[in-house]
Design goal:
Layout: H1 2-19, E1 33-34, E2 41-43, E3 51-58, E4 62-70, E5 78-86, E6 91-98, E7 103-105, E8 109-111, E9 114-122, E10 133-141, E11 158-159, E12 167-169, E13 178-184, E14 188-196, E15 204-212, E16 217-224, E17 229-231, E18 235-237, E19 240-248, E20 259-267, E21 284-285, E22 293-295, E23 303-312, E24 314-322, E25 330-337, E26 343-350, E27 355-357, E28 361-363, E29 366-374, E30 384-390, E31 395-397, E32 417-420, E33 423-424, E34 432-434, E35 437-441, H2 442-448, E36 452-456, E37 461-466, E38 469-474, E39 479-482, E40 485-488, E41 494-496, E42 499-503, H3 504-510, E43 514-518, E44 523-527
Parallel strand pairs: 1-3, 11-13, 21-23, 32-44
Antiparallel strand pairs: 2-10, 3-9, 4-7, 4-8, 4-10, 5-6, 5-9, 12-20, 13-19, 14-17, 14-18, 14-20, 15-16, 15-19, 22-30, 23-29, 23-31, 24-27, 24-28, 24-30, 25-26, 25-29, 32-33, 34-35, 35-42, 36-37, 37-38, 38-39, 39-40, 41-42, 43-44
Length: 529
C-alpha cells in the first residue's frame, strides 16, 4: 500500500512538473558582459528562463544608481527583477520594473572602488516579457561627499574629512548600519546636523549616535520622517577620534531616502568646558575673571568640574546663567571646593532663574574647583554659562602648567559689540565670531535696522523687508537672495542655544547700510542711510 502511494505521488509530481517548472537562479558571474558606467546598454530576456549578467568596475569610490527602461508592455505586474552584487556575491540593490512603467530607478548606493555585478531576470514564467530594455549605471565620483559602503562597523567607518561639510548616505535595508569616523583636531565645540527629504512618517525613522574612541556613547538623536532637519545639542570635546552611527529604527520604521550628515566644530579657546571633565583630575580650566565658560550636563549622571587658580587673595563669587527652561524646579547644583576638595559653598539654579550670583567668599591664593551637576529631580541638557568674579581686585591665572606658574595675567577677551548709528544693540544671546564673520540674533539686528522679520520654523527660513528690499535666508544655507537675486554668504545662518543667528555684515549691507569693524574695541559699527 505504501509503495503504491509513493508511486502515485511521484507520477503526480512528474505531471505537475509538466505545468510548473521549478527555477533556482544560481549566481554565475563568469559570463557577465563588461559594461561602462554612464553608458547605456541594451538587452532582452528571450524567454522566462533567460538570465542576463553584467559587470562594471569603479576605479574610485562614488555614487551609483541603476536606471532600467523599456517600451510600454501594458501590464501592471512586475516583469523584470534587477539586482546588483559585489564581488563577494552580497546583494546591494534589488528592485523591479513593471510592464506599464517605462523607466525604473534604484536607490542611490555609495560604493568603494572595485568590480560589481548586475543580474536581470524575469519574475516568473507568467510575469515575463521579451521586450528590449536599456540598462544604465550612473556614476558620480566621491569627493568626500558620500559614505563608502560597506561601512557597517567601527573598523570600516567612512572617514569624514571635511568638518562642516555635509556627507550623504542612506540605509538601503532595515538592517543596514552606517558608521562614520571623525577626527577632532583640537579641543572644540561640536554639534551634528542631520537632514533628509520629507518622509510621511511621524515616527522615529533614523537613530543617530556618537561614540568616543572607547566606543562609549556620548550622544543620541532620533530623526522623525516628517522632521526634515535637526541639530544636536552642543558637545564640548577634547581633540581625538570619534564615531557616528546612523541606523534605521526598525523594520517598520525604515526609509531608504538619502540623509545628509555634517559635523560642525568651533575651536575652544577657553570659552567652553572640555569633556570628559567629570572628576577633579579632569577639570576644565577657567582662565579669566568675569569671562563665561559654557557647558552642559549631557546626562543625569554627568558632572562638570572646573578649576581656577587664585593669585591675589580677595573676595570671589560665582555667576551662573542659562536660558529660561520654563520650569521652576532646580535643574542645576553648583559646588565650590578648595584644593583639598572641601566644600566651601553650594547653591542651586532653577529653570526659570536665568541669572544667579553666589554670595562673595574670601579666598586665599591657591587652586579651587567648581562642580556643576543635575539638581535633585531636575535635569536639562541646555547650555549654561559659569564665570568667576571678584569685587576686590582679585586675580586668577591662566593655566599653563598645573599648578600654574606665576606670570602676567592674560588679557580679558572682550565681548563682540554691535552699534547702529551709534546706539549699542542689546542681545539675549551674545554675538559670536565664526570664520572671521560676526553672527548675531536675528530679531535684534533686524529691529535695529528698521526691517520687518518673518520666521518660518517649518523650513527654518528668514524673510525680512525694508523699503523696496527683501532678503531671504535659510539656516545652514550659504545662499541668500536679495529681491530674488542670489548672494553667496561666507557663513550661513545657524541655530545656537535656541536662537537663530545671522551674519550681521551681509544683513546690514543688503539694506544698503555701511559696516565697519573696530578691532580695538571688537565692535561692529553700522551706519544706515
Amino acid at each position: 500500500m505504501f509503495k503504491k502511494g509513493l508511486i502515485s505521488f511521484i507520477i503526480f509530481m512528474v505531471l505537475l512538473g509538466g505545468v510548473f517548472v521549478l527555477r533556482v537562479f544560481a549566481i554565475d558571474f563568469s559570463d557577465a558582459q563588461l559594461i561602462s558606467v554612464n553608458n547605456p546598454v541594451s538587452g532582452r530576456l528571450a524567454n522566462y528562463n533567460t538570465v542576463n549578467y553584467y559587470k562594471f568596475t569603479l576605479n574610485s569610490p562614488g555614487k551609483v544608481k541603476i536606471s532600467f527602461s523599456h517600451g510600454n508592455v501594458e501590464r501592471n505586474t512586475e516583469l523584470w527583477r534587477i539586482q546588483m552584487f559585489n564581488a563577494d556575491e552580497t546583494e546591494i540593490i534589488d528592485f523591479s520594473s513593471r510592464g506599464n512603467t517605462p523607466t525604473s530607478e534604484s536607490i542611490n548606493t555609495y560604493l568603494a572602488s572595485g568590480t560589481y555585478y548586475i543580474r536581470i531576470k524575469s519574475h516568473s514564467r507568467l510575469d515575463h516579457s521579451d521586450e528590449n530594455y536599456k540598462l544604465l549605471v550612473s556614476f558620480v565620483e566621491n569627493n568626500n561627499n558620500y559614505e563608502i559602503e560597506s561601512n557597517d562597523s567601527y573598523s570600516e567607518a567612512t572617514l569624514i574629512k571635511d568638518l562642516g561639510k555635509e556627507i550623504t548616505g542612506n540605509c538601503h535595508h532595515y538592517k543596514d548600519v552606517d558608521y562614520y569616523k571623525v577626527v577632532i583636531p583640537e579641543n572644540s565645540k561640536v554639534y551634528i546636523t542631520f537632514a533628509h527629504s520629507y518622509v510621511e512618517r511621524s515616527t522615529d525613522v533614523w537613530i543617530i549616535q556618537m561614540f568616543d574612541s572607547d566606543e562609549r556613547e556620548i550622544l543620541e538623536l532620533n530623526s522623525r520622517g516628517t522632521s526634515t532637519k535637526l541639530e544636536s545639542r552642543n558637545l564640548y570635546l577634547c581633540k581625538g577620534e570619534y564615531y557616528i552611527r546612523v541606523r534605521p529604527n526598525g523594520y517598520l520604521d525604515h526609509s531608504t531616502a538619502d540623509y545628509r550628515l555634517s559635523v560642525i566644530c568651533d575651536k575652544n579657546n577657553g570659552q567652553y568646558e572640555i569633556e570628559p571633565n567629570n572628576t577633579f583630575g579632569t577639570a576644565s580650566p577657567i582662565n579669566w575673571l568675569a569671562h563665561n565658560v559654557t557647558g552642559n550636563i549631557s546626562s543625569r549622571s554627568d558632572k562638570d568640574y572646573y578649576k581656577f587658580y587664585v593669585t591675589a587673595p580677595g573676595n570671589y563669587s560665582i555667576s551662573f546663567t542659562h536660558g529660561n527652561i520654563e520650569d521652576s524646579i532646580e535643574f542645576w547644583e553648583i559646588h565650590l571646593f578648595d584644593s583639598d576638595q572641601n566644600v566651601l559653598g553650594k547653591f542651586s539654579s532653577r529653570g526659570t532663574q536665568t541669572k544667579f550670583e553666589s554670595k562673595s567668599l574670601a579666598l586665599s591664593k591657591g587652586e579651587y574647583y567648581v562642580r556643576v551637576q543635575s539638581g535633585g529631580w531636575g535635569y536639562s541638557t541646555a547650555d549654561y554659562n559659569i564665570a568667576i568674579n571678584s569685587s576686590s581686585g582679585g586675580k586668577i591665572q591662566s593655566y599653563v602648567d598645573s599648578p600654574p606658574s606665576e606670570g602676567t595675567m592674560p588679557s580679558q577677551p572682550d565681548t563682540i559689540k554691535v552699534t547702529v548709528n551709534g546706539m549699542p544693540i542689546e542681545f539675549d544671546q551674545p554675538p559670536i565670531l565664526e570664520n572671521g564673520r560676526t553672527l548675531v540674533p536675528l530679531r535684534a539686528i533686524f529691529t535695529a535696522l528698521g526691517a520687518s522679520v518673518d520666521w518660518n520654523g517649518n523650513n527654518m527660513t528668514i524673510t525680512s523687508t525694508k523699503g523696496s528690499n527683501t532678503i531671504v535666508m535659510q539656516v545652514g544655507k550659504t545662499v541668500m537672495t536679495k529681491n530674488g537675486k542670489e548672494i553667496i554668504l561666507d557663513v550661513p545662518p545657524k541655530l545656537l542655544n535656541g536662537r537663530t543667528l545671522v551674519p550681521v555684515r551681509a544683513v546690514a549691507e543688503s539694506f544698503d547700510a555701511n559696516v565697519q569693524w573696530d578691532g580695538t574695541t571688537r565692535t561692529v559699527i553700522i551706519t544706515t542711510n
